[in-house]
Amino acid sequence: MQNQDKSTGDPTLTLSITALYDSTTVNVRINTISVNSFNPKVTLSTLDETRILLPSKIQLFGSGTSLYVVSITSNNPVSVVSINYKEQSSDSASLFPVTEWGTEYYIVTPSDGSFQEFAVIAKEPATITIYPTGILTYSGKNYGKGNSFTFSLEGYQVIQFQSQNDLSGTKILSRKPVAVLSGHTCSLKSTLCNHVYEQLQPTLIWGITFFVPTVSYQTRYDLVYITAATQNTLVNYQAGTLQNNKTLNAGDVMVLTLKANAPLFINATEGIQVMYYSTGGYKGIEKYGTVLLTIPDVSSFCTLFQTVDLQQFSNEAILVAETSDLEGITMNGSSLVSQKWKTIQGTKYSWGEFSLRSSSKHYIFESTISPFTVSVFGVSRQNAFGEVATCLAGSSRPSCSQVTCKEKEICKIANNKAVCQGTGEATCWAWGDPHYHTFDGKNYDFQGTCTYTMSKTCNPNLPFFNIETVNENRGSSLISYVKSVNIQVYNYNITGVRSEFGIVRVNNQKVQLPINLNNNKLVLAYSGNSLILQTDFKLKVIYDWNILLRITVPSSYYKSVCGLCGNYNGNSTDDLVYDGAALTPIQFGKLWKVNETSDGSCHDDCSGNCVTCTSDQKKLYSSIQYCNILTQINGPFNSCSAQINPSIYRDNCVYDLCLNDGYNQILCQTLKAYSDLCARAGIQVGEWRI
Questions:
Q1: Measured between alpha carbons, how far is residue 687 from residues 635, 636, 665, 690 in Å?
Q2: Which of 92, 240, 286, 481 is such that its CA lies 20 to 30 A from the CA of 583?
Q3: What pLDDT is recorded for position 477?
Q4: Is residue 161 within 8 Å of residue 171, measured between CB atoms?
Q5: How far is it, in rounded angstroms, from Cα 134 to Cα 19?
């Protein structure tokens, strides 16, 4: 981001990269810059650190977008620190791997100084909404508190916003994971103006327990910014003998004063973001400026850290560790137990400050007993910086760096764990007489009246589910509809029976909706005359107790399901294939018949000659007075057609009216089913009922 103004010259932009394993190859690229002009490639051994100098022209300046996005790739995990240096204004920030990016952030920009700024970086195309707390300008229009705005970024594109207002509490929401940097071009409080910035943590990995130590040479005060993302977050804090608490709501930012020799202990009921802001001061005769630093929560403590001594600065390491385990901590192999530690009142932790003034440029801090944390602060003539040391091992904080996900999955941090989640989803449905639409998009008709497997898990490494339907004739032995749906999941048998609105049978016992089962991992609700079942692994089943059944699975189940809904492998041409042979819908239906629970009188065909539509019937029922109202330009469903293609619903509507001699109730059921789909997608349709 922008470091001061152009009159102070170009910054020195550097990446510090540390390898965690031997034979680690690192490549650095800059989007839109030719590999012939810039393409560093280095091979590192364990704990080796290298510096990559970046061209100064990639610095963001002012508000606007840029395609100068730096990407670092490696064959093994590495840690990366970015450094933005000018002789009288510099800062550094630890960078997160793409797997730990998120979709929700809250900005922190301390109020004093010139331009508050933040930047949003996208690796893939993303739609982003900003909820500002101060004035922001986008596309020539000003937006203030209460006025959100939305924009899109291309892949490998960044946008920077600057403002003369404090932007703390500004919320950023993205449909895709993004990175967010926040800071100042030149932040001024007590003494000098200094460029400060940090890469923010997404809300999903915020912690609840924090320690904020003080630096010995700050004789006045510094500030601590605490941000909440959840309503009614109770924040308890203690500094020396002072104890207090405050309840914060989402987007609230609380500022605490950090006084000399009175470290803060903070604990919250929900995840919070804690940032330390050094107001500047004097270290001996040296005047120094402001520093912005993200405080790690206790779950981010590690047993092994590395930090690099910046030669232009007088550097100090600040450690926080359990008091009982201080004897196990070393710096470059030398014990620190004899050094002066101070207890943090009311806790089992202590903090200590240690000078980095040996001939070594690299410092290794290690504990053989328990995790701890290390931050580094540097002061030089009219300059300062601060950063959390690089964690190399022993963190209890969830990380995706060691997680391998399968096809159609990505690692994300959820509920304080690194888990693989699907990157998308697929939907199958049975509707009407019944028309089937597979996960891969194949449409076919099948009139069997037995019990059939719609879809089930066919991979033992995934959470098991099995969804079966019982079909029945209605009004004619030639056509069939869904009579009931049975869902087996988490050792429950859940059955929805036609016309039993608001009721399901759980293990053969009738239960009124809504209900939560298996510690809320299984939720059943009644909404819009439909049963909605959802699991914690993103399975979703909707049944309208009449003619429509929809099953949605996350892409974690890619190539891992089977049944009438197909195999979900991205290829619709093999959905009705078995052992290499193409099957008719009747043959395919027989393949997934559940013989054990099928009635002896049921059948898999039309129980006679299957009914077909005459050309006159197709013409009649394809008119606007009937099924073509779904596709009518400027008709009641026009607002929805761009998002949910109505063509297959229209074709199935025509087919069902043919089979039911134009029975008007069939038309109404069809239009209602499509209208409900639009409503669930958040789209309002026009009046279609007569």
A1: 9, 6, 17, 8
A2: 481
A3: 57
A4: no
A5: 40
